[in-house]
Amino acid sequence: MSNGITFGFAKPLAAALALAGALAAAPGAVSAPGFGYDGAWAPTWAASPEPPRVPPTVLNNQTVREVLRISIGAGRFRVRLTNEYGSKPVIIGAAHLALTTTGSGVDPRSDRALTFDGQPTVTIPAYGVIYSDPVDISGPALSQMSVSLYFPGTSGDATGHFFGLQTAYVGAGNQVDAREINITNTLGERPFVSGVEVALPKRPKVVVTLGDALTDGFGSQPGANHRWPDYLAQRLNEDRKRTPTAVVNASISGNRLLHDFIGPNAISRFDRDVLSMPRVSHLIILLGINDFGFPGARNLPDEEVTAEEVIAGYKQLVARARAHDIKVIGATLPPFGPIPSRPGFYSDEAEAKRQAVNQWIRTSGFFDGVIDFDAAVRDPKTPNRLNPGYDSGDHLNLNDAGYKAMADAVNLKLLD
C-alpha cells in the first residue's frame, strides 16, 4: 500500500505475549469440572486495553472498584486482567467480584473472592494477561457487576481503557470486601480490567463491535450504558426466543484503522480484540472517520490515506475474520463536521472519501451484511451533517438519542 502503511502488529512483543496469555486461558485449557457445556466460556463484557495515560495512573496500597454491565447472564464468571503495556510485573494482593447496587456499593450476598490457581494473590507478568479462577454468582443479563482489585504496593503505570464512561472508585488500603468503598479518589478510566466471561450450558452467539469513539460511546451520558452496543444488547435480550447473544465492545476512542493514535491501530489489535475472544460468531466494523480526519487535524501529512486504502484495510479484517468462521457486517460511516473545535479534521476531501467508502460498503457485496448508520443519523435536510437531534455538540460524536438510533438501525436478522 502507498503512504508507508503496513499491516501487522505495532507492538509485536506486547501483542504476542498478550495473545499467549489469552490462549493459555482459552476454553480448551480448562480442566476443573462444572465449567458448562464443553467448557463453553464466552465473553459478556470487554474493554480494549490502551497504553498508560500521560501522566499515568498509578495505584499504591489502594483498592480500585470498577463497575461494568454484562450483556448476557450466567451463574459462573471469570475475570481477565491485563498488564500488557506494563514493563514491570504487577502484584494483585486481593480481588473480588460482586453484583453492583448503587455507586461503589455491592450486594454482599453476591460478593465472591477471586482466586488465581487457587491462590488469593497473583502477579501479572510484564506485558501479560491473567484469568481468574471461576466463581459462582447468579448474574442476570444486563446486570451491573463490580470488580475490586487491591494493590499492596505500587502498580506501576496502569494499562487501561481511557474512556470508561463509568466511575471507578479508589480507596486507601484493602477494601475489596467492603460493601461500599471509603472513597479517596475516582477515575474515569478502567485500569487493569479488560474482560469478563461467562460459562453457559449452550453455545451462545457473540457479537464483537470493532470501532472508535462512536462505538466507545463518547458523548453519551456517563454511567448510563448508552453506547450503541449497549442499546443493541438490550434489543437482543428482549427477544426471548433468540439464542443468548453477547455484545462485546472492542472500541477505542480516537482509534484508526491504519495508523496508531490513541491505542494501537485496528489492524494491529485485531487478533487481541477480536480473534482471541472465544465463541465469536459476528463482527460489526465501524472505522475510518479518524483515518480521514486526524491527518489534517494533527498536521500528519504522511498519514493521509485514500478511500481505497481504507477499503483495503477492511478487506484484510474480513479475510482474517472469515478464516475463523466469523460473519462480518460492514457499517457505513456517519457524517462528521465541520468541527470548529478541531480545525482541519473535516474537509471536502475527507467528506468525499467518506462517501466513497460508504458507497462501497453498501454496494460491493463484500460483507455478510450491512448496517446503514449514515442513513440512520444524518440530517434529512443536509445529508452530509449529523441530525441535530442526535449531535452531542461537536458534530462528530452522538448523544444518547443518536446512539439509540444507531442500535435501532441494526436488523437483528443479520445476527441470526
Distinctive features:
about 425 residues; alpha+beta; 5-stranded antiparallel sheet; 20 strands
Topology:
Blueprint: H1 12-24, E1 41-46, E2 60-69, E3 74-82, E4 90-92, E5 94-99, E6 112-113, E7 122-124, E8 129-131, E9 135-139, E10 144-154, E11 160-161, E12 168-172, E13 183-187, E14 190-191, E15 193-199, E16 205-211, H2 213-216, H3 228-238, E17 245-251, H4 266-275, E18 280-286, H5 289-297, H6 307-322, E19 327-331, H7 348-363, E20 369-371, H8 373-377, H9 400-408
Parallel strand pairs: 16-17, 16-18, 18-19, 19-20
Antiparallel strand pairs: 1-15, 2-10, 2-12, 3-8, 3-9, 3-15, 4-7, 5-6, 5-10, 11-14, 12-13
Helix pairs in contact: 1-4, 3-9, 4-6, 6-7
